[in-house]
Design a protein that fits this description.
Chain lengths: ~575, ~575
Amino acid sequence: MDKYMSTIRRIFAYIGRYRWGVVLSLFLAAVTVATTLYAPILVGNAVDLIIAPGNVDFEGLTEILLRMAAVICVTAVSQWLMNHINNLITYRVVKDIRTKAFRHLENLPLKYVDSHPSGDIISRIIADIDQFSEGLLMGFTQLFTGVITILGTLGFMFAINAVIALVVVCVTPVSLLVASYIARKTFTMFQKQSETRGELTSLIDEMLGSQKVVQAFGHQDEAQETFEEINERLRGYSLKAIFFSSITNPATRFVNGLVYASVGIVGAFAAVRGFLSVGQLSVFLSYANQYTKPFNEISGVVTELQNALASASRVFDLIDEKPLVPEPENAVALSQAEGRVEMDQVYFSYDPKTPLIENFNLNVKPGQRIAIVGPTGCGKSTVINLLMRFYDVDSGAVSVDGRDIRRITRKSLRDNYGMVLQETWLKSGTIRENIAYGRPDATEEEIIQAAKDAHAHSFIRRMPEGYDTVISEDGGNLSQGQKQLLCIARVMLCLPPMLILDEATSSIDTRTEIRIQKAFAKMMEGRTSFIVAHRLSTIREADVILVMRDGHIVEQGDHETLLAKGGFYAQLYNSQFAVS
Amino acid sequence: MRKLLKYLSAYKLESVLGPLFKMLEASFELFVPLVMAQIIDTGIKNGDTSHILRMGAVLVLLGVVGLTCSLTAQYFSAKAAVGFSTALRNDLFRHINSLSYSEIDTVGTATLITRMTSDINQVQSGVNLVLRLFLRSPFIVFGAMVMAFTVNVRAAMVFVVAIPLLSIVVFGILIISMPLYKKVQRQLDRVLLTTRENLLGARVVRAFNRQQDEIKKFDEENSLLVRFQVFVGKVSALMNPVTYVIVNGATIVLVWTGAWQVESGVITQGEVVALVNYMSQILVELVKLANLIITISKSLACANRISAVFEVQGSIAEKNHGTIVTEAERASEGQRIPRVRFKQLVFAYAGSKEPSLSGIDFAAGKGQTIGIIGGTGSGKSTLVNLIPRFYDATEGAVLIDGTDVREYPLRQLRDKIGVVPQRALLFKGTLRDNMRWGKKDASDEEIYEALDIAQARDFVDSREQGLDMMIEQGGRNLSGGQRQRLTIARALVRRPEILILDDSASALDFATDAALRKAIRAATGDMTVFLVSQRASTIRNADQILVLDDGKLAGLGTHDTLLDTCEVYREICLSQLSEKEARRNG
């Protein structure tokens, strides 16, 4: 409940920026409702002037109808303005929240991004905020006007005739009761329906997602059988859920009909006794018609608002995530680093319960090559995370040129590293933009030179639009090798003093692979390089080999030393030739 | 959509009765204003209280009858709609399962899943709504006009003008705003794309210090979204005020005309009230109709997408059913027919001009191990996928036991073959269930035997539940290496004549990989094994090695011969091994 309230309070804080808009919107809502309710009264008055042949007051009628025309115009204009203002407020508020969430995202530790499925974060920023905006808009347009309409109608009705007004007030809640009774009854049906639907979806997901395996093993018939069984159950639940929920409308309509009939009867009796004119009766009839509508709408709005609140609180959770540790005020900007890297008694783990890197020491001289080896999934990227300061060490220190990297600005530290990862991420945009990603102000010549150095120029030239070819999301129209070459070109353009490279394991054809090797070799000249290595040639040429296993660094040294040691490295190396 | 209508034909009665009862309900609703007019003109004018009560009772009765009709209608339409979607879903699932690899590649798994789930749901609610409302709203609109005519022809002329005017406004705004909403949706997709991109590339964005620019870009996309939203909001916000003006304008005219008619004694005061009531009924129904049309157009789009899937035909057709006798079984004693033979094979994927494989010609005997090596896109997987006839050759043929694979019934063909695909996929259920995919009636001993060979016995034994161990969808609760070993075991359970390992040991460390190959060789007798790999060390001991380069056979032979004669093979080996290592005898 506390969270509920605090979420609401925060939403109000966002809306607060547009408080004049809200005030105006409320004022317009009141005007709209008042004039909307006034129109039937005018019609009623008009009807009262049309009694029988020879008993029609045309003069009075003209006046009333003219007034009505004016009222209609006021209603229309204020209604449109109100809607427009509500749209403006809602979409702006949503934009503010979305921007804030995104800004925050760029400022969150990578730990958050790594440990949350991207689908989840995306759905918070897109779907949840969307849901919230719908709820907010409905809240504005329907809740306000709904409540004001109910109050206004009540006021007008009691002003005309208290007895009939009482009849309306007593009978209408029945429609609400009926609606909520049905909603309660259907809830379980819907729950069953969505459970079964979920079951079916996960079967579909599984069978279609691995359809090739299903076919290879001739499993189609069994799959069909299971599918039809669940589908049949779904049919039963769906029928009930749909039928029972579709009772709501006719049932409330029926209650409305009852209200209408009661007003008609009681009103007619009142008219006979002379308490009420025929025109006033027609006013009541039209009120009876529209009085129940806001009630039904409001119950819908309430669910919508609850959803919106839940969504908003998920978004706020994201915004509340603790951002990066701010940089100390005296953080220095590292200019061109020499490339001396030390790790001193480093302890690090992603999860405090499972220690990962313990008391790790490493001393890299400028220009050295460090190969990181180990079986797949052994945590080679952890070292990269620490070097680039994507994660902070738990204790100990990583330093560059003798300076603790926590006392260097993040920007300047990262400017000194060039990174080519195996997951070749490219932006949607042109090839030129992608190569210039690290230096948007690079000239055309520099970009082409970088592409040539990365052996990417020739394939880029062969693309339909050359450097202006637009890469679709995540480089869909490029081969894996081409993507890797572009990532290399991207680093080539900046050529920082230290490098972090991840050799591709597979998925690249031999020719491209040789090109990539050449490009890597050119880049590494005279630069301190950390290489996640898969090729024996790279490993053998390295100055230091870090051997990793299950997240731990188990051995370090050069090829000969490690082989002589006869440990895990030797085992890894020899196992390749173990088959007789 | 028309093609999908056949699924409704089993519910003809329901599909007719639903709308029919709905119309009945609507017509009862249309009588209400007339009854009210009666109350005013007869009851109130003459002070006849019993008439008022009688008419009041009629009102209540109309309500009850209306409710009954409408409940009946709701039931029939729900039944028809749900029955429709159930049958459709079953058929679509069956159809999708009949597609072959080639069609799955073209359409895409994600698309198929969406068609099966949200699209069918959308169509179901569309059918339901159409049955319930599509006739009702127009019926009330025109019914109200007809009723107006019965009251007074001159007054009814107001309806004749107002209804088309209202329709133009309601549907006009609908038509204008629908593409605008699509534009909003597209822009929202762009915002989503930017978000996604930044999550996936978080490391690169930070490594290049581009956070501020990314935020700026997001701001631009986001602002554009708001601009579109506000614009479309402005247009659709016109709907209510404009229709309000028309209806009430019409009411003014109606009252004015009515006044003259009453003055000349043609109609009564109560009838004027009835006319005004009819006018307000029309507005409500038109707005409902507009919303309905939005839903229908969405459903139609979904229905078309579903039809499109039905139109995709599986390209692998069975020529023979039952069981056929292979050439090898027919052959005389002493005649040696290779287990698998590729004859001058050319293969191109659907829609691509360049063949992915060409000039492939080789034979694999019983008990042989065939290694296949080459870069990505060189056609390794494609080649082995032709053996179980996941794709058909464009030219040339694949023969198994001397018989063209296209002559085999699919089941007989695929029962001969055990496939271990690149992606190690397991299914929700127990380990035993998963193993029985290979052979439906496999005994526990057979399963354990396969697990032994696949080097998976140790880890299965280390779990308490053994073969009853639950596996989550896709095998998420297992490591990559464990999954790979289990998928290998699954293929071995059926004791296939041909085993295909499509780069299936990539997640295993070198030692396990080696032990696995040794066990397979030792246990499988005259099984023909196809080993696809990127690792030279994996295939170097094969009886024959196929070296693929850009879809062509660049070399065929043993490791030692190829090392001397095949440039591509040398290049691959030397990128992974040193000269000395490559030369060392295996």
